[in-house]
Specification:
single chain, 112 residues, F1FO ATP Synthase, elongated
Length: 112
């Protein structure tokens, strides 16, 4: 059994988060809003990005496990392809849920 190291992925996500916070802060400072605080729209956009990134990362991890098992099961028993395809599709749906949440959050920016 191969042990997967998630330390690198976590570090990369954390780094991207802090880069995003820095970019958002710089954009707020250019607009002259740094003294008065950050608008809610910036935080909503960051939340949408985190939802999408988390969904994509989770889907990637889930598909790597389910896809490997699906290929192995299909190689041994080809008639099981339809069943294992369902499990891979369920794992891919995690990214779609993250995308839906991101769209729902981004529609709130126009209301702010």
């Amino acid at each position: 059994m191969r042990k997967v190291k998630y330390g690198f992925a976590f570090t990369l996500c954390l780094l991207l988060f802090f880069v995003g916070v820095g970019v958002a802060s710089a954009a707020a400072a250019e607009d002259g809003e740094a003294g008065g605080g950050v608008r809610d729209g910036g935080w909503i956009a960051m939340a949408a990005g985190i939802a999408m990134a988390g969904g994509a990362l989770g889907a990637g991890i889930a598909v790597s496990g389910a896809g490997t098992a699906a290929v192995g099961a299909t190689a041994e028993k080809p008639e099981s392809f339809g069943r294992v395809l369902i499990f891979v599709a369920l794992a891919e749906a995690i990214a779609i849920y993250g995308l839906l949440i991101a769209f729902m959050l981004l529609t709130k920016i126009s209301e702010v």
